[in-house]
Amino acid sequence: MPTKISIQNLNVYYKDTHAIVDLSLDINANQIMALIGPTKSGITTLLRSLNRLCELNPDARMEGDILIDGKSIRARDVDITELRRKVGMVFEVPTPLPMTIFDNVAYGLRLGHKRDRRVIAEKVEKAIRDSALWDDVKDRLNMPAMSLSGGQQQRLCIARILALEPDVILLDRPCSGLDPISTANIEDSLTKLKEDYTIIIAPHSVQQGGRIADRVAFLLMGELIEQASNMEIFSEPKDSRTSDYIRGRFG
């Protein structure tokens, strides 16, 4: 598998807090990478660094580099808006906009100055289908997005990202608080989506990481302790701290 993202000696600080400590990690294209670790492991910070969302915090400072397709995301000629389209992020709490289901998914397209109604309709339908939400909403696209269940709202947020045709999808505990059926629907969607996208997820549990990830990285206090294939991490972890975390001895 070709490398999609190369994180090189990354350090992230919030004032005096060293949130990410000299982290280097390569992430392959068309795979699901799960980032696991206890609270304050720096996982959310790492995700937000990949499309420079960290810069929205005035106290944040970043050292090192992140390359996507061989190009630094910190280069002077990088368009941050385009970067965040290319590297879309879905947050822990679903954030549907106060508008219809259709308009939620079309919002980014229109913001990007797409005006052709037919093209927009086609892209919206494809995104909703790809997020495994179509069968639930195809007859009520003009209903308010807030009328959807929590799991449906989260899949709608995924569809909103997919409509922009990103290269990379970041997910920060997208199934936290969802029921098992909604969680299974999202996991099924992600397994199919990796055929077209590179996916990096902070799973809501170690077990979820074990179910869907191709590779797993274990972080502790901002440091990368170990990264390997799913089977290696869950069957034969090399570091005792990884083993202890996976087996629930801390965290």
Secondary structure: elements and pairs:
Layout: E1 3-14, E2 17-28, E3 32-36, H1 43-49, E4 60-68, E5 71-72, H2 80-86, E6 87-90, H3 101-111, H4 117-130, H5 134-137, H6 150-162, E7 168-172, H7 180-193, E8 198-202, H8 206-212, E9 215-220, E10 223-229, H9 230-235, H10 240-246
Parallel strand pairs: 3-8, 3-9, 6-7, 7-8
Antiparallel strand pairs: 1-2, 1-4, 4-5, 9-10
Helix pairs in contact: 3-4, 3-6, 4-6, 6-7
What does this protein structure show overall?
A 6-stranded mixed sheet has the order 6-7-8-3-9-10, with helices on both faces. It has a 4-stranded antiparallel sheet with strand order 2-1-4-5, with helices on one face. β4 and β5 (71-72) form a beta hairpin. The two termini are 32 Å apart. The chain has helices at 43-49, 80-86, 101-111, 117-130, 134-137, 150-162, 180-193, 206-212, 230-235, 240-246, and strands at 3-14, 17-28, 32-36, 60-68, 71-72, 87-90, 168-172, 198-202, 215-220, 223-229. It has 251 residues and is α/β, with parallel strands linked by helices.
